[in-house]
Amino acid sequence: MTYWQDIWDRWQFLWDDRGDGVTYWQWMFSAWGYTVAVAAVSLVVALAIGCLVGTLRTVSQHRVVSALATGWVELFRNIPVLVQLFLWFFVISEIVPGMRGVPSFVLACCALGFFTSARIAEQVRAGIQALPRGQRQAALAMGFTQLQAYRYVILPQTFRIIIPPLTSEAMNIVKNSSVAFAVSIPELISFAMQTQEETSRGIEVYLAATVLYIITALAISWFMSILEKRARVPGLSSQGQGAH
Amino acid sequence: MPALDFSFYTWANISTYLLSGLYFSVSLTIAATIGGIALGTVIALMRLSGIKPLEYAALWYVNLLRSIPLVMVILWFFLLMPSAFYNLFPGDIGQKYRAEICALITFIIFEAAFFSEIVRAGIQSLPRGQTFAGQALGMTYAQNMRYIVLPQAMRNMLPVFLTQTIVLFQDTSLVYAIGAYDILKGFEIMGNTFGRRVETYIMAAVVYFIISFALSMLVKRLNEKIRILR
Predict the structure, then answer these.
(1) What is the number of domains present in chain A?
(2) pLDDT recorded at residue B228
(3) Nearest chain B residue (CA) to A215
(4) What is the CATH code of the structural domain delimited by B11-229?
(5) B54: distance to nearest CA of chain A, Å?
(6) Which of A62, A68, A102, A123 is a Cys-bridge partner for A165, taking CB atoms 3.0 to 4.6 Å apart?
(7) Which residues of A touch B70 (CB under 8 A)?
(8) Which pLDDT score is estimated for B9?
(9) Does A171 fall in a domain?
(10) pTM score, whole prediction
């Protein structure tokens, strides 16, 4: 009996006031909210840029365009995400006019979004190149313009193929959002580190943060598997099977 | 926009602030790659052993470590590593380099989860006939792995190992969370000392970029070579 009582007591700090009217319990969920929000906004940025850049890399008629797109991917893929975060906070916001007043949340989402965009661009490019060449040729033979071929034939199939790698990118972006602690975004790692210092309840706090990360990862994989089923084209069964 | 000034990058300053950090980053990468491949191979073999408890243990190991951020894992190890462990090192090395030692252990254990998935894929990509042929020749399980399966699997996996090593090298910057002295820390201290954060973070990005980009070119060339051989 005393054993369970002891465990229960060890978690009591969650209901303590931090001194500003906010309990650790409330802070934890706001931190989780920050983690999810940073990840979600970054993912939108990364998807938008990544799809554009990945598509441009496959446009072979314009050498300059595809070289620029390749340069984009190499630049953002070869610098660690933490260093990119510091670049946005201490370099870009310093030397680019008009960037000084930008909120740190936006800067963090830019850093994480641009970093992930390079990885998503690679997935999109691989997806486009995995399609049979006949698809593009057939579209062009039907009188589609290059743009229409991408819009109506190539990209809709590509997106279905790359749902599984995009799932792991979405999970990666949640994990990578943890670097935002280094620029004082109040997300889960910041919460865990600061609460550990203030309460010395390291194991309990880390356990809570870890569980929240795992729940987030599970939720994403569940959501994406539903998305994959919804997006499946009836009759094209081979696409669905490749996923697992 | 303030003018950029890189004149403080003298040889004396570089060797004072950066070289030991660079040395730690590179040696952490190499040690974690070797350690991670060794431990990862063991975990992959457990996963493929056909013995249920071992299989589930390996499965849990991999899935758990892959679903939480590396920063979280680093914090866990730094919190839980008993101080008796650091005392095993001669003199005051253990206490002086707590963060660095802890980072090394963490990276080996964390990266093993990722390397084990690569090794598992490598082993499974071999035709089953290779294993059967080994067994037919009267080889034990260990001999079969040592002489038939692993040499071929490792060769196939070499480019993927190197790609993972590039990721690993970039991940070493996350030891920032426990204050270990890596190259990024070196740049940070240098920037604060000279009041030139802009220039130091630019140079940090340049250094990481050059090393990662050079390694990825190497992987590209290796891939082309292997393609010709086949």
Answers:
(1) 1
(2) 59
(3) B67
(4) 1.10.3720.10
(5) 22
(6) A123
(7) 175, 178
(8) 74
(9) yes
(10) 0.87
